[in-house]
Write a structure and sequence with these properties.
This is Pyrroloquinoline quinone biosynthesis protein PqqF. The protein is an alpha+beta fold. It is built from 24 helices and 22 strands. Strand 9 and strand 10 form a beta hairpin.
Length: 783
């Protein structure tokens, strides 16, 4: 059943979009304030960003401990905010039962913040820590350098993030500007509220009207237009194998944002006949990104980033791009307009409540190209086409229809036996209209990691097509395990799995050619998180041989590989079709042994080297104690954030959570700090855990809230599927969410404190990943 949408303007001027999406389980709210960093006084760079931070620190009605962030965390949801050039967005997603409370807190915090200097002083240090990390991040600096190429008269070229020196909180003029900015823009006429969920439109409207009462009546403030984006033509910028092209667009009609998204969809399409396919076939490039860095009042700064192979000059690549744009401007686009409508319907079907609400608040719903956007597209293409460049010798054509968007169920409905090695989980019912398939192989010791790289390259074209069709396809390597995860519309998942299994056994010739590695994330804490699974269960084995790998090596690997799989969310017909597809899965079915976790106190120094110190501590806990471990994590999350980010002000990247990784349960603590050493961070974590047992109590309300989070109707579909898969990996294939809820209710204070004590004394070991060496004291072993 498709979504139904209603648009309202309330009496106080608040614009509201309501979306009833019956396939959703969770609810989301997004508020867009029509003001951003370019609307703040230029004398105080970062004021808008600073205000965004201040709003989360609580107010008289909902103090920090009961504010939006803590409330959403307690209910297992997600919350965030973003300050852009001309807009500021606030958004959250929670289970249905917590939605009204979350919406009340969101509107209250935006309407009635506290501006006391003590809060401002602490939060300014957080802003400064973000600024230091930003200034040291090569990717962020490369982006900033791009923006320096626009006109000096345009605010896009200026600094707007804020730091300790641009936010003079003790200055009367700054405080006046801060309050004036809030009063002028944080009123109903300057906001758009979007709600999405499975509730009826009437129920959503009742909640929206109640929320609107928080905001002062107002009218839309006309945001000042900016100067021209560019004084001259923006020249290409080349850095090693990367070519960056900027296009400054002026005086575009309404609908430009939709037109840009439509153009990006086809410009980055890797199928034959398009630009990316031509680049790859000629050996000139491998990747192409197209995005809008800025868009406001008919202006847009468009960015085309190409990852090249070195086989062509910049002029040749630009000529090819200009030629494709001319082709796309002149071709009859009827067929791809129809396919785009299918794409948008699929995206809407598989989107989360949060994605739907955020797109609605930005006036960018998943919809087909309408007449207004079509006219904007024609105008945009005219502005982009470079008549000065010659034509390329390329035969362009529009891509063929995507089969993953037109999946038809097979005519024969004969029953197919469930393959040995496939577990069918009933935890996610078919009515959710989202299917999940997991496959995990254990490969023989000594097999070269390069074979996985070959297969990963072989899957790349399919991965790109699947993503466009609303299907997520992941293929990961961790020690001697390879894992495949496919999720999306059930019929599309089955079709994608069929193509995937073929590619894994018969990779095309180009997949055997090694390519340069993708850029790694330079943010240390994210890099450590990415490396955690392999470090937890042990790194890869030594290579089999030093020579090149070939098809016969792959055949030998599959001959000795063992696999285990799980499916959930598929109805009977889709499951039968999957059973048929999995008859061709390579390897032999077999129960895989749960991955063992190390029990020592181990420290592993890992890249990347950086100017900031990052520590990621994983503390394994017994899979039999999941209820207690989750309750402990619930107790820890808020106080840990308060202690490390607010009181100690170690940095902005601070978190703690319960995690299931490779079938291993545990608590993870992460801190990234610009000024505190690795040893000091660990000392603070140890001190926090030392004081923890005496602060714990088994409040019935906390247990009830956690138990409610761990029910299928409350959890997201992805969370349900992942929980079932992790239980299977841990050897608990019969585990049930209902049993887990009962166990949560049964946890007593003695058990909870014992779990905390085991955590403190590393009864099951500690694995500490850091981008620096281990402390001299503490009996750390090298992992």
């Amino acid at each position: 059943m498709p979504s139904t949408v209603q648009h309202l303007t309330l009496d106080n001027g608040l614009q509201v979009t309501l979306r009833h999406a019956p396939q959703l389980k969770r609810c989301a709210a997004a508020i867009r304030v029509m003001a951003g960093s370019h609307d703040a006084p230029p004398t105080h760079p970062g004021l808008a960003h600073f205000l965004e931070h201040l709003l989360f620190l609580g107010n008289d009605r909902f103090p920090l401990d009961d504010g939006l962030m803590r409330y959403v965390q307690r209910h297992g949801g997600q919350v965030n905010a973003s300050t852009r050039e001309r807009t500021t967005d606030y958004f959250f997603e929670v289970p249905q039962a917590a939605f009204a409370g979350g919406l009340e807190r969101l509107c209250e915090m935006l309407a009635r913040p506290l501006f006391d200097l003590q809060r401002q002083s602490r939060e300014r240090e957080v802003i400064h820590a973000e600024f230091i990390a930003w200034s040291r991040n090569p990717q962020a600096q490369a982006q900033f350098a791009l923006l320096q190429r626009v006109s000096r008269g345009h605010p896009l070229s200026a600094f707007h993030a804020g730091n300790r020196y641009s936010l003079p909180i003790h200055c009367h003029a700054f405080q006046t500007a801060l309050r004036t900015y809030h009063q002028r823009f944080y009123q109903a006429g300057q906001m758009v509220l979007s709600l999405s969920g499975p509730q009826s439109l009437e129920q959503l409207q009742t909640m929206a009207c109640a929320a609107a009462n928080n905001f002062a009546t107002g009218e839309r403030v006309e945001q000042a237009a900016a100067a021209r984006l560019a004084d001259n033509t923006l020249t290409p910028q080349r850095s090693e194998q990367q070519l960056d092209l900027l296009h400054a667009i002026e005086n575009q009609p309404t609908g430009m944002e939709h037109a840009i998204e439509f153009l990006a969809t086809w410009l980055t399409d890797a199928r034959p006949g398009g630009l990316l396919s031509a680049l790859r076939r000629r050996g000139w490039g491998q990747a192409l990104e197209f995005s809008s860095l800025y868009s406001f009042a008919g202006q847009a700064l468009l960015h085309t980033r190409l990852k090249l192979n070195g086989g062509a000059t910049d002029t040749q690549v630009r000529t090819l791009l200009a030629d494709w744009l001319r082709f796309f401007r002149d071709v009859d686009r009827t067929s791809i307009n129809q396919e785009y409508a299918k794409l948008q319907r699929r995206r809407a079907q598989t989107a989360t409540a949060l994605e739907l609400a955020c797109r609605d608040s930005a006036s960018r719903p998943y919809q087909a190209l309408d007449t207004q956007a079509e006219q904007a597209l024609n105008s945009l293409l005219e502005a982009l086409v470079q008549h000065t460049l010659p034509s390329a010798t390329e035969q362009w054509h529009l891509p063929a229809a995507e089969p993953l968007l037109a999946v038809h169920r097979p005519a024969d409905q004969y029953s197919h036996v469930t393959p040995t090695g496939l577990s069918i989980s009933s935890l996610l019912p078919p009515m959710r209209q989202q299917g999940f398939v997991y496959v995990r192989w254990q490969v023989s010791a000594g097999i070269d990691e390069r074979l996985w790289q070959v297969l990963d390259r072989a899957l790349q074209p399919l991965r790109e097509r699947a993503e466009r069709a609303g299907v997520t396809l992941q293929f990961d390597s961790c020690a001697r395990f390879w894992q495949l995860r496919c999720t999306g519309s059930p019929d599309a998942v089955v079709a994608t799995m069929a193509e995937t299994l073929h590619a894994l056994q018969h990779p095309d010739a180009s997949s055997w050619i090694a390519r340069s590695a993708d850029e790694v994330d330079k943010m240390p804490i994210r890099a450590l998180l990415r490396q955690l699974p392999e470090q937890l269960i042990g790194g890869p084995d030594a290579t089999l041989h030093a020579g090149e790998v070939c098809q016969s090596d792959l055949q030998r690997l599959w001959a000795h590989a063992r696999w285990q799989a799980m499916a959930t969310g598929l109805d009977e017909l889709a499951q039968q079709a999957l059973n048929s597809v999995l008859q061709d899965i390579p390897g032999k079915p077999g129960l895989l042994c749960p991955a063992p976790a190390k029990t020592a106190r181990a420290w592993q120094m890992l890249p990347p080297a950086a100017n900031e110190q990052a520590v990621l501590l994983f503390c394994p806990l017994s899979s039999e104690d999941e209820a207690c471990a989750r309750l402990l994590a619930q107790h820890i999350q808020g106080p840990f954030y308060q202690r490390f980010r607010v009181e100690l002000q170690l940095g902005y990247a601070v978190f703690s959570a319960f995690r299931q990784i490779q079938g291993i349960n545990g608590l993870v603590f992460g801190v990234q700090s610009p000024n505190t050493s690795h040893e000091q961070i660990l000392t603070h974590i140890h001190g926090f855990l030392t004081a923890l047992p005496s602060t714990l109590h088994c409040d019935a309300g906390i247990r009830q809230a956690l138990a409610e989070q761990m029910s299928e109707p409350t959890m997201s579909n992805a969370e349900v599927a992942e929980w079932a898969w992790q239980a299977l990996l841990a050897g608990r294939g019969k585990a049930s969410l209902h049993a887990l809820q009962q166990q949560i209710h049964a946890v007593d204070e003695v058990t909870l404190r014992q779990c905390a004590d085991d955590l403190l004394h590393a009864k099951r070991g500690w694995l500490c990943l850091a981008n620096g060496p281990a402390p001299l004291h503490g009996n750390w072993s090298k992992h």
